[in-house]
Amino acid sequence: MQSDQTGSGRVKGTFRDKLIAQKFSNPIVPFFLLVFSFLSSFIIFKFGIIGAGGILAVIIGLPIIYGIAAYPKFGIGVLFVAAFFINYVSEFLPEAVPIGTMLDAITYLLILGFFIKQRTEQNWSYFKNPITYMILAWLGYNLIEVINPASPSVLAWIYTVRTVGFIMLMYFVFVFQIKSINFIKFLFKLWLTLATIASISAFQQENFGFFPFEKNWLYADPLRVSLLFIQGHMRKFAIFSDPVTFSYNMVIASLLCISLIMSNIRSYKKVILGFMAAFFLYVMLYSGTRAAYVLIPAALAMLAILNYNKKILVFSLTAGFMLAVLIVMPTSNPLIKRFQSAFKPTDDPSYNERSMNQKRIKPYILSHPIGGGLGSVGIWGRRFAPNSMLAKFPPDSGYVRVSVEMGWIGLILFCTLMFVVLYNGINFYFLVKNPVLKNYCMAMILVIFALNVGNFPQQALVQYPTNILFYLAIAILVVCKRLDDEEQQKAAMMLQQDNISSKLS
Which structural domain range is residue 342 located in? Predict the structure, then answer.
C-alpha cells in the first residue's frame, strides 16, 4: 500500500515538473500554445469581435467557474461583487445582453459546490434551527405557487422565483460555508468597501454630473426620467438600479458601521467607521427616498433596546434630539425639505395615493387566499399578462406585493418568517458570550430589522444586492450562535480535562 502511494506521488510529481516547473522546455507546452494560437486566429477572423469575446470568456470564465464551485469563499466574494455591480455594468451594455443570468449562474455554482461538499461531509446539523425550518416552509410555498390557478402565466412565476425564491438557497450556502470569525470579518470589509464605492458614485452624480453612459441609460426611457426627476432635482441611484435600492443599502451599511464602532477595536478604526457611516447617510439624501429616512431612527430604537446602557442611552437621546430639530427647523434646502416630509406622511400626496391603492386591492386579497400568482404584478406581470388587473396595480410595499401575489396565507407565512428570524436572532444575541460574535449578532439584527421596516413603504427585498445581503445577515446570526457554541464546548472540555488532571495529581 505504501509503495502504491509512493508511486502515485512520483507520477504527480513528474507531471508537475514537466508541465509547470519545466514550462516551455517540455515540447507539449509549445505545441499546445501553437495549436491554440492558430485556433484563436481562425475564430477571430471568422467571427470578429464576438469571437474574440468568446475566447476571452473561455480563458477567464472557465477558471472563475471552477473557482466558484470548488472554492466557496472565492465564490461568495464573486457573488458579492457581481450583485453590487450587475446593474451598473448593464447600463453600458446592449439590452439584448442577458447580464442577469450571470448572477443566476453564480448562484447555481455556489449551490452545486454546497451539495458537492455535503456529499463528502454529510453534515446537516448546521441547519437544525427554527430559522431554517421557516425558510424551507417559505421556499416551499414559493414553489407551490407555480400551480396557483389564478396565476396568469407560468413564465411570470419562473422569472420571479429566480430572484425571490432561489435566492433563499443562499442562506444554506452561507450557513454551511462561513466557518470562522475571520471570514465574517472579510465579508464585512468587502461589504463596506463596495458600499463606499457606491457612495462615491452617488457623490459624483450629484456634484459632478452623470457619466455619459449613465446619462444615456437614464434618458433612454422617458418613464424612468419622469420617476426620478422630482421637484427640479434628479434623484441619484449610484451603481444600483434605482434610488430606493441605493438609499436602503446606504442605511444598512451605516448601521453596520455604527455596530462595529461599539466593538473592541482600535480608536482610529472607530473614527474611520464613524466617517463612513456619516458619509453613507449624507449621500443617502441624494436618493430622495423618504422611506429610507425613517429607518435610521427605527434601527437606533432597536439598538437602545438590545444594548441598554448609559452610553447607548445618551447616544440615542442625542440622536433623537438632533433628528427632532432637523424635522421641525425651517429650511429652503430641497433635500432637507424632502427629508422632513417623510415624517409627515398624511401631507404627502404619493403616500395618500398608495393608501388608496391598498384599500382598493384589499377585497381582492381577502377573496384570494393564495393570491394571484408569483410575478402577477410588476414588470413580469406587465410583460406576460399585460391585460390583467394585477399587471396594472402598483404594489409599492413589499408586504402588499406578498399579499397580492401570494394571498393572505402567504402574508401570514412571510410575517411568521420575519418574526422567527428576529425572535431567534435576539435570543442568540443574549446567549452568545464571545464579545466579537455578540457584536456581529447585534449588527445583523439591526440590518434585518431596518429592512423589515423599509419593506412596508417600498419593496426592499427583491433587488440586488439587498436580497443577497438580507439572507447573509440571517445566516450570520445562525453562524455566530454555532461558532460560540463550539467555543463554549471546547472551553468546557478543557476545564473538565484540567479538573481530571488536578485530581490525578
Answer: 127-494
